[in-house]
């Protein structure tokens, strides 16, 4: 029996109007949101099933195509996301969302000039939290730390106050920007704010454990991350625990968590193959398979 009230509502709509795209779109939106909140990729797989059904009903439905683009990014299928956004743009040349997809996809593909052009167009069309966060990301990629911090703060301030995940996501990006420059105290402060706003937010929990380790609080980091991982097993958290144990010289525990991380990542599907490859590359592990996936 379905316990999530929003999922239940969407399923009831589908039962009443099985030939309408609206119920499937509503269901996909809920699943995508749950995936962002929890980091559980199975929600994205459920969303993908709903979007495919919506596109079977109405292949040219713009909302369904946008949801598909969102999922392509979530599955790290960046070239496909870029191609879909380019196609949608032909009939929707002033749609800010599409420029957001182009920004994200091109940035991940290393086409930074195209990403910068797309984000400028996006912010011109819709100056809001979503576009500000993307501007911050592009500035960060260009090494503009001060400018990135400024825009991440603006993105957090302008996020929908009813959307706790969106607010905390912006704060986590700000914390990550501080962390990159060795500002661990500032990073922890922002992560604590993100967790106060949205307790158990998985991205903030990963960041919190990482910054504790960076501050030399390894015992606290291990205790914190282990508790989080027991509640909701996660490949990135498992790998981070492996890294911490490796630095402590505990090869047995390190290998245990590396193996768990690989197992969890493998179970997330083919869209995560490159993510796993990066986990391996960071440890000079399985280099032949790394190269095969890049």
Topology:
Blueprint: H1 5-16, H2 21-38, H3 41-57, H4 62-74, H5 78-91, H6 96-108, H7 112-125, H8 129-141, H9 145-158, H10 164-180, H11 184-197, H12 202-214, H13 218-231, H14 235-247, H15 251-266, H16 273-281, H17 287-293
Helix pairs in contact: 1-2, 2-3, 2-4, 3-4, 4-5, 4-6, 5-6, 6-7, 6-8, 7-8, 8-9, 9-10, 10-11, 10-12, 11-12, 12-13, 12-14, 13-14, 14-15, 16-17
Provide an overview of this structure.
The protein is mainly alpha-helical. It is built from 17 helices and no strands. The chain starts with a helix and ends with a helix. Mean pLDDT is 91; it is low at 289-294.
Bulk shape: globular
Low-confidence stretches: 289-294
- The ordered string of helix (H) and strand (E) elements is HHHHHHHHHHHHHHHHH
- Total of helices: 17
Sheet-strand content, in percent, reads under 5%
Distance between the termini: 41 Å
| Average pLDDT metric | 91
Question: Please, what is the oligomeric state?
Answer: single chain
Structural class estimated from helices and strands: mainly alpha
**Radius of gyration computed on alpha carbons:** 20 Å
List keywords for this structure.
single chain; 294 residues; mainly alpha; 0% strand; disordered C terminus
What would you say about this model in short?
This protein is an all-alpha fold. It has helices at residues 5-16, 21-38, 41-57, 62-74, 78-91, 96-108, 112-125, 129-141, 145-158, 164-180, 184-197, 202-214, 218-231, 235-247, 251-266, 273-281, 287-293.
């Amino acid at each position: 029996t379905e316990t999530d009230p929003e999922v239940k509502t969407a399923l009831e709509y589908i039962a009443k109007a099985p030939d309408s795209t609206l119920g499937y779109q509503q269901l996909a939106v809920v699943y995508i949101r749950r995936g962002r909140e929890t980091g559980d990729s199975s929600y994205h797989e459920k969303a993908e099933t709903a979007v495919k059904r919506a596109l079977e009903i109405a292949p040219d439905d713009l909302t369904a195509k946008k949801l598909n683009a969102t999922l392509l990014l979530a599955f790290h299928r960046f070239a496909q996301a870029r191609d879909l956004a380019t196609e949608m743009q032909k009939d929707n040349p002033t749609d800010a969302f599409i420029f957001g997809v182009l920004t994200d996809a091109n940035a991940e593909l290393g086409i930074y000039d195209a990403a910068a052009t797309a984000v400028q167009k996006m912010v011109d069309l819709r100056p809001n939290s979503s576009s500000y966060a993307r501007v911050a990301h592009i500035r960060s990629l260009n090494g503009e730390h001060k400018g990135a911090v400024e825009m991440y703060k603006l993105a957090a301030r302008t996020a929908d106050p009813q959307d706790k995940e969106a607010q905390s996501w912006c704060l986590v990006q700000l914390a990550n920007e501080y962390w990159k420059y060795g500002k661990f105290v500032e990073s922890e402060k922002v992560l604590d704010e993100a967790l106060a706003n949205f307790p158990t937010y998985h991205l903030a929990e990963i960041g919190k454990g990482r910054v504790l380790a960076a501050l030399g609080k390894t015992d606290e980091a291990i205790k914190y991350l282990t508790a989080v991982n027991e509640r909701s097993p996660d490949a990135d958290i498992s790998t981070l625990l492996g890294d911490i144990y490796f630095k402590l010289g505990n090869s047995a525990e390190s290998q245990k968590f590396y193996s768990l991380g690989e197992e969890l990542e493998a179970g997330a599907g083919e869209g995560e193959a490159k993510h796993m490859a990066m986990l391996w590359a960071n440890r000079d592990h399985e280099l032949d398979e790394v190269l095969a996936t890049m």
